[in-house]
Amino acid sequence: MKTQNALILLISGFALYTTFLSFKQHTYDVRIINGFSNNSSLPLVVWCLSEDEGDIGGRALQERDDYGWTVKTGLFWSSSRFVCTMKWDGKRKKFEAFRSSRDRYRCGARRQCFWLVKEDGFYFSNDDGVHWIKDFPWFDLRFSGFLILHIY
């Protein structure tokens, strides 16, 4: 009987502990920066949506302007996702600015998810924008919906 009570107590304690951890939150700083070198007459238009929070709005960014928000996620169970549409000079691109399953580790210990948008594509940084890594171009043929045939 003592073993059974100890087992019930152990399982109850574990369930209480995991419930407590699921309410603990992490906060991420997500930021999109206009990194164009000469576009003073054409702003970068950013508009973002979240499945959880709905339409979070947008901005028209001039050179070096930024648009940012914070994301709160659970420690273990979170499905937070923010999708942004970018428009500039006839180009349009939709991308995931934040997805908790991807960015839990990608955004680093500081939980910073920074995007620099330039003429040739989208760059990511998790260290105050010191080191940028190109993540993808404005137009990616793999996802364009066109079938490309190579003729030899």
TrEMBL record:
Its main location: secreted. GO terms for biological process: rejection of self pollen. The keyword Secreted applies. The keyword Transmembrane does not apply. It is found in: Secreted. Keywords: Secreted, Self-incompatibility, Signal. InterPro entries: Self-incomp_S1. It comes from the Eukaryota. One of its GO terms (cellular component) is extracellular region. PANTHER family: PTHR31232, S-PROTEIN HOMOLOG. Belongs to the plant self-incompatibility (S1) protein family. This is S-protein homolog. The lineage of its organism: Eukaryota, Viridiplantae, Streptophyta, Embryophyta, Tracheophyta.
